[in-house]
Structures are given as C-alpha cells and as structure tokens.
Sequence to fold (477 residues):
Amino acid sequence: MKMKKITVGQRLYVSVMTVFLLFAISFIVFQQYREKQYKIDTLNLKLQEYNDRMAEAMRSCPSVNESWLTHYVGQHPVRGIRVTLITVRGRVVYDNVRKDYAHMGNHADREEVVEALHLGHGSAVDRMSPTMKRDYFYSATYFPHQGYVVRSALPYDNDLADSLAADQHYIWFAVVSIILITVILFRFLNRLGHNITNLRRFALLADRNEALDVEELMHFSNDELGEIAERIIKLYRQLQNTRQEQDRLKRQLTQNVAHELKTPVASIQGYLETILNNPKIEETTKEQFLKRCYAQSERLSSLLRDISLLNRLDDAPVQKSRECVDIVSLVAEIQKEVSLQLEEHDMLMVVSLPEDLMVEGNRSLLYSVFRNLVDNSIAYAGVGTTIEISAELASQTDGPSLWYFTFSDNGQGVEPHHLSRLFERFYRVDKGRSRKMGGTGLGLAIVKNAILEHGGTINVRNNPEGGLRFDFTLPVA
Fold:
C-alpha cells in the first residue's frame, strides 16, 4: 500500500510546533524554577533577618539565659519556628524545641552550618533533621564576634511546600496560550500547504502539457502567496494563448506562402512543359513563354526576398550599423528608378522635403519603406493620380526629436473596414487584381516593421478628397 506523501505545509507545521513546544516547555520549567527559587530566597532572607535581630538582642542584653531566649523566641509571630544556638565546634547550647542538649549530636557537619561558617550564612531546603526526625527549612547565620551560629528553621510541611511552590495559574495561562497559537499556526500553515499543493498540481499539469482548466487550481487563499500563485497561472495561460496564436499565425503564414508560391511555380512549370512537349513550337512563341517564365521567376525572387526581410525583422533586430541617411537623396533615387512606371500610368510624384532631412537608421530598410509605399501607390492609386511626400520636424520634451512624414495619393483609396488590416502579411483588398499587378502582399508589412525597428510609428487613413494617407515618424539624426 502506497503511503500518503507528507506535504510541505505539514512538515513545516511539525517542525515549527516542535521548536515552539520545546521552547515553551523549557520556558515554563525555567520560570517555575525561578519563581520557586525567588520564594525560597525571600523566606531565607526573612529568617536571616530574624537571626540578625536575635543576635543583636543578645548583644544588648546584660544577662542571656535559657529563659530569656525562650521568651524571645516565643514572641515570634510564626508558630512552630525552631531556633538553635550552635558553637563553632558544633555543640548545641540552646534549642527551643528540644532541651536535652547533651544527647543532641554534633551539628558541625550540618549543611547549613558548614555553609554559614564558610560564607557567613547558609540554608538548607527540605532537609531531614536527625534530631527531630522530620523535614525542616533551615537558615543559619554565623556571628564570629560572639563565636556561635544562630539557626532558625520552619517545619517543611504541606503548608510551607505550597507557599514555596510556583503559581499554577501561570501554567494554565501558558497552556491556553500554546493551544491558541497551535490553532492559529495550523490554520495559517494549512492555507500555505493548500497553495503549495495547488502550485505543485499546476506545475505537473504544465509539465505534461495537460489542460489547466481545473477549477480548484484557481482557488487560493486570500494572502500574498495566493495572489502570486494566481498571477503565475494567469501569466502561464496568457503565454499558452500567445503561443497558440503564434502557431496559428505561423500556419496561416505557411499556407499563404505556399499559396503565393503555387501560382508562379505552376505558371513556370506550364510554360516549360509546353515548350518541352512541342519541339517544333515557333521561336516567337517560345521566346514569349520564356519571357513569362522569367517574369514569374522575378516574382518568386521578390517574394522570397520580402519573406527573408520580414523574418529578420521578426526574429531579431537588424544587426547592421546605423548611419545618418539623407532621405532627400534617397527619395530622389527612388523617383528616378520609377520614372518609367510613373510615365506609363500618367502619374505625378510631388516631393516636399526639407533639404536638411537626415534620419538615423539603416539605409536599406529606409529604402524599403519609401520604395514599397511608392510601388503600392503606383499599383493601386490609379491612372492620372498624384503622389505627395512631405515632412516636418517636431521636438519632444520627453524624448528625441522626430521627423513626421506624410505620404499620400489622390487615388481611389480603400473601404474603411480594410484599413486596420493593410499592414498584415499577404492581406489583399482585391486578391485577383493584386496578383495580376505582380505584388507579393508583403510590402506594407515590411514598411510597418521597418519603421517600428527604427523606433517610429505609422498609421493609415483615407484622405477626405480620396486616396490613402500614411503618417509615420522616424528619428532625427
């Protein structure tokens, strides 16, 4: 039979209670001893004072005899007190209880007498008297000038023993306190053990990748540890949901990539298969097919290049060194490269940028930002439209200065419900038209990620007069 495992809370409870009980018992025993010793010392001090007063009375009395001594002792308020005078050699010269001094043994070896002769005073608690055959509490004082020891004693009966005993009310108070502390500690450690047990179950379920929708896992005690445990589980669930969302996006991206690659690959395969299966095909037709194959291969190269760039932006910051980039010359370079396309679409590109517009960043990424925005407008703005690029400097009190860019066209724009998704990968407003234009569906995603990589922001909206408007920021060099 498998033994039930002792929990951390139970082990902690047993350990703490063992230490506490040992301390409590030791304290009670020590306190009992101190209280009893205090009462013994108090009684001994009173008897010592009596011995001193009796010796003083004997010195002041001109004639001390047995009747005077008996009369003096008889005046003591405590009944049953025994007073004995003992010489330095241990011979008893007076005892108010027993008068046959000749038959009383030598007292030089009595415990309290020996101590008094050496230290000046001595005592003995609960010692049997060989003479009287009963227990006494003795207190002896040595007076060297008189040459004798005055010893007073009280019978050690039940009344004296009770008066010297420690107060039992303290013990009951200590026992009740121990019980209360035990109950409080048990409740606290029980809650602690419950939290630890739930955390352990959570760790086991998480390690086995099992479902965490266990109701009792969310019921922790209302304290700091319970709050921390609940937060850990919530964070783990959020992490799981994030991973699931990432897996979903990865699957979606894989499907989109496969779909995007499928069309050009099928086209290339079809054209080449036609050429191979028709050796006598006309040269003009063959050349036309080969040109189409080349165009599709260019599309594949562009798609793979964009995917590679996005992966580098996602996985880790671009490790290329940053520099001061002249945006005016960069935009002029792009304008020159697309001049033929602008002419074909009867489009105009108006650039209104400050001459000193310098941005700190990676030139190839900044080139991708402006080139993709220009290509997007050429592809979708429409014939006879105008592209406008402008920028202005804005200083910030709580951060570095930024360039605020505006890139817009006066084309047809997009419907409002598409705006929030334009920066998604492979998202197309018009899928058929987009593929026909040769786009990869990744241009605006690259724009957004490149701007974020530079610490900027970007948003898109429709112009009131028509067309799209992109507003974004880049850091001043």
The chain has a mean pLDDT of 80.
